[in-house]
Amino acid sequence: MNIITLTLVLICIILNVAAQLALKQGAFLDIAAVNWHSLFKLFTSSWIIIGGIIYVASVLVWLLVLNRTEVSKAYPLISIGYIINAVAAYYFLGEHVTLLRMAGIVVILLGVFMVARS
């Protein structure tokens, strides 16, 4: 896998994390009951719309990645998104990262390393 493909994978991961953060922010809407009005309010939230747009951009970049490399090599690299997402959620959303979650992140890193070396 060359540097351009790895860069595209990283861009895809960053876009995916940004989409997750935007969707989480949009999910903070105060919706007491699930009905058509509350669903409309949720899906017309600017955060949800921004998250959706970022997801579409992520898919477009992912298609470029798939055009350049094998999916069996590229897809495991997406797991790096779990790490970036946990760090971003900690800093931007104030979520807690427990010791067990950090251990899971280390396991993910080891797995990504093993796949990348194969």
SSE inventory with pairings:
Elements: H1 3-26, H2 36-43, H3 46-68, H4 71-77, H5 80-93, H6 99-117
Describe this structure in words.
The protein is mainly α and 118 residues long. The chain has one domain (3-117). It contains six helices and no strands. Helix 1 packs antiparallel against helix 3 and helix 1 (3-26) packs across helix 5 (80-93).
Summarize this, please?
This protein is mainly alpha-helical and 118 residues long. The chain contains 6 helices and no strands.
Main features:
single chain, 118 residues, mainly alpha
Beta strand count: 0
What kind of sheet is the major sheet?
none
Number of helices: 6
Instruction: Give the helix level as a range of percent.
Output: over 70%
